[in-house]
């Protein structure tokens, strides 16, 4: 009996001694650590970094004089010979020299030794990055460091060209590192732009058990109309989209932008603009097949990251148009895995995560113009991804117009109004209408350092329960800004 008592006493003593040791491993700061999942092109892609051959391969380093010279000579050759292919003969080799160094092979793997800047430790180890961050991902990081402490903020940057399913493994490794270094059981994630593909792949592969809150910011949650239409061969200049793009994106000094707008309007009224656009489309159409075969397919279409932007209704057509099933079998296996296991199941993935307690939010921006080189460039966007995509399904009036007079929202089952006061957005058709906010005149991703927009994002991230567009009168479903998000207010 004494022996049994001694054993029990020893067991209790050891247990009491161990409990404080385990308790000391948990951080009690009250702030969940944040992982910012970046988008495309935040930092350059570099070939053979650290060697004498180190070269930036993306964004391509463009010699504009060389491009202008090739274009001029090509147009001259084409005019003299009455053969448009002479222009392509000049431009295509130049395009290949710019894009091929960043290409992947037929299996979707990088052809060359390419790296990008990564941040494996907390942001307290990168003070120069924090201090210089004033917008987009870096703006979120900077604000987060003020709010949470730099030791609780991490930045997941990656080679966006690669397979989102593989990138999901790298994201999981970072999240495990964050948990170990911060002594927290869960993290929040702010998912930006193309990072939406990686985040969805992560949730599919690893579940939501390590995630407390997830905010999708201008995310490619539903792909991109631009990628989908270009990959299916729909490359064309739309006259209306061109006018909107010039109006919004060409900012000249001394009010010359107003002069340009007037000039373009005069061209349109006289019919000259329509003729110019028609001739441009005829020229593009005559060279499109060569450009696709000789430039696009082997340089850009071998990137799995690019394919993660292709939407459901275009995916199979794009594959049939661009990829030989034998030559690109390895690539097709990769992109099929993402498309059919992640892209098409995204509603199921997010709904399951919310059911298990992860809070989820979507921020979508509008009233900016896309580059007018595809039919849907006339739609609302944040300048890089269309609003219908970042919101996962909102009905939007074309840029510069409003929904028809007397328009009634498509989905009335919730009994609440999801129409924007400016008559541009019907949010009732979103995949998650109660968790999707819209911002007029805020740039792609947004989140300027110390801004009211950032305050909104951190209100979402810090909420212990799932918020909706009805939860806080300060943050209704539709908001607007006159200073790109530094201040925001309800749209009335």
Task: Give a description of the structure.
- The protein contains 17 helices and 13 strands.
- It has helices at 2-23, 64-81, 85-99, 127-131, 136-148, 164-182, 195-206, 225-231, 239-249, 256-269, 272-299, 304-307, 312-322, 329-341, 346-355, 387-390, 452-462; strands at 34-37, 45-47, 55-58, 114-116, 153-156, 187-192, 211-217, 359-366, 395-396, 425-426, 436-440, 478-480, 489-490.
- An 8-stranded mixed β-sheet has the order 5-1-6-7-8-11-12-13, with helices on both faces.
What's the CATH class label of the domain at 34-39 and 119-222 and 345-368 and 379-490? Alpha Beta
Strands in their spatial order, largest beta sheet = 5-1-6-7-8-11-12-13
Using only C-alpha atoms, the radius of gyration works out to 25 Å
What distance separates the N and C termini?
A: 79 Å
Count of beta strands: 13
**Low-pLDDT regions:** 1-24
> Per DSSP, what share of the residues sits in E-state strands of 2 or more residues?
5-15%
Shape: globular
How would you state the average pLDDT, rounded?
A: 92
CATH architecture of the domain at 34-39 and 119-222 and 345-368 and 379-490: 3-Layer(aba) Sandwich
CATH superfamily of the domain at 34-39 and 119-222 and 345-368 and 379-490: Alpha/Beta hydrolase fold, catalytic domain
CATH topology of the domain at 34-39 and 119-222 and 345-368 and 379-490: Rossmann fold
The helix fraction, in percent, is 40-55%
Largest sheet, in brief, is:
8 strands, mixed
Number of helices: 17
